[in-house]
Structures are given as structure tokens and as C-alpha cells.
Amino acid sequence: MKVVCLGAHILDVLGRPVPDIPPGQGRRTLEEIRITAAGTAGGTAVDLAKLGAEVVSIGPVGDDATGRLLLDLLDSHGVDVRHMARRPGLATPATMLPIRPNGERPALHAPGSMGTLTAADVDLGLVADADVLHVGGPDVLGDFTRDALPDILRFAAEHGTATSMDLLSVGRRELADVLAPAWEHTGFLLPNDDQIRAVTGRDDLVEAAGVARACGVGTVVVTTGAQGCLIVTGDGVERLPAFDVPVVDTTGCGDAFTAGFLVGFGARRSLPDAALLGTAAAALVAQGLGSDAGIVDLPSTLAFGDRRSPGVA
Ligand SMILES: Nc1ncnc2c1ncn2[C@@H]1O[C@H](COP(=O)(O)OP(=O)(O)OP(=O)(O)O)[C@@H](O)[C@H]1O
Ligand SMILES: [Mg+2]
What we know:
The protein is an alpha/beta fold. The chain has eleven helices and 14 strands.
């Protein structure tokens, strides 16, 4: 399965446990600090590669040490980084994540080069050749999302490439107008509950998913953290609970869910079965620090999903 991951690639620096930031110049000793390749495109790219997909990443990075490290991490997981867009003089998008003892993850983010992607950075030959085009973080890609993304998604659809999208931030209501032309050509939208509520202005998740579907999205899969997910199609709504696992850090659970879901889709599983693979991948990531924790490969992720019935959370 070939996937192009287009959009937000971020270097995450995570430490745990951080119950609070020490006052003044105070100091705290942590159990663990990790650096990972993350973001709704980059984190999903790493997880897809671990699950056996052939992955090409396209996203903006600076020419700084952070960017070199990010590319090296992606490459070490087997992601093709030759098409990443280098931006001389700009910083690579990066996030500091002080992980709370309960696994919650406040994020301190510096976008750097994030908003600089243009249509010229996207090799349409790669898009046509891929099985899936996954767009991560259209909400943070600046003018690209309005000016270039709808045409790229339409091109993908016209060339038989399935399309998916996940958001990075909890956007605002105005974002819906920017995303609507892209949603027209989006097969799968996989936001979390806060994001779809904020963008659509609807509190009820099925109604919120309905707003995106009315714009043209085929299937909306809303992830709801420890509760699981909701699959909304024209045929109705299915709910799938998460796995009950000892949580260390939920950073990247959504990215892992997307990766598992897309691999399931690529293997022609039913939507609930694809979501089950997504749920298993996400549960593995939740048990370690960082968005690349936990997942080893497809057989062990499938085995994890088969061994444990969801519904116990
Ligand atoms: N505490 C948890 N226990 C078990 N599974 C979890 C937990 N939190 C998340 N998950 C799994 O991960 C999936 C995605 O989680 P969530 O809705 O938090 O995504 P997200 O907010 O997009 O995360 P991120 O943006 O960091 O990748 C859920 O559907 C669920 O299967
Ligand atoms: Mg997410």
C-alpha cells in the first residue's frame, strides 16, 4: 500500500511525568525525555511505515538542526523524505510536551515554517501513483489549504487515489469555510471530538459529522479519546469503544488511529474492522511516551486487536 502524507510534520520533545512547571528557576528530575517525528502528517507517516505501508512525506521543514533531526527520524522509520520542502532561514515546526502523570498532554508549539507550503511542493505524480493521499493539519497550513489543497484532493480522486484528512488544532468556526472546498474531495475525515465540534459549531457529534458530510466528506470517523470512536456514513452511525489499557501518554493516539484505519481500508476491511485496527494501533501508542511509541509492526498490532475485545474500556 502506497500513502502520501501531506502536511504537518513536527519534531516533538516530550518529558514525563510533569505534574506542574516548577516556579521561578526551579528544577525537576523526570523519568524520561524523548524526541519523536510527529504531527498529523508526520506521526501518521511513521505509524503507517511501521504497519508496512510505503510512505512518502511532503511537508515544510526549516534548514535547522531540528529539521535535520526530524528528517533523520522519519527516514529511520522507512519514510521517504526526499519530497519534504526545505525552507532556508526558517525554523522547523516543533512542540514541547510536558506530559502529566495521568497521560494528559499540554502542548507548547512553535509553528516555524509550517504555513509555507505551496502547490509547487506537491509532486502530483506521487499523488496519482498512491493508494491514499492523507492530509494532516490543513488547519495550520496557511494559504495552501485554500489556494492549493482542493485541487490536489480533486486530482487525487480523479486518479483513483483515496483521500483522508485529520486536523491538528482545535480550530474555530471560520475554518469550516476554508475547509469546505477540500471536504468536497475528502473520502475520510478523522478529527477528534473537540475539533469537529469547534469547526462545525455543533455539539452533537453525529450532527457535527453530518455538517462535514453535507460538504462532501464520504465517511467521518470522530475519535473520542478513551471512549473510542464514532463512524458516521450515509448508512448510519457505528460506535466502537477504545481498549482499556494502562495509559502513559496519549500524544499521537489520533495519528496512530488514522494509520491503522488506513491500513485496514487498504486491506479492504469493513469500516468497523478498519476502525478496530485503528483502535488497536492507538492503544499501543497510548502505553508509551511519544507518538511513535508502542507500535512495532502489522502482525503484532493485529494480534493485539484480536487478543483483546474492545468494549472493556
Ligand atoms: N486513554 C485512552 N485509552 C485507550 N485508548 C485511547 C485513549 N486515548 C485515546 N485512545 C485511542 O486513540 C484514539 C484517538 O484518540 P484521541 O481522540 O485522543 O485522538 P487525538 O486527540 O486526535 O490525538 P492526537 O491528536 O494526539 O493524535 C481513540 O479513538 C482511542 O481509540
Ligand atoms: Mg488528532
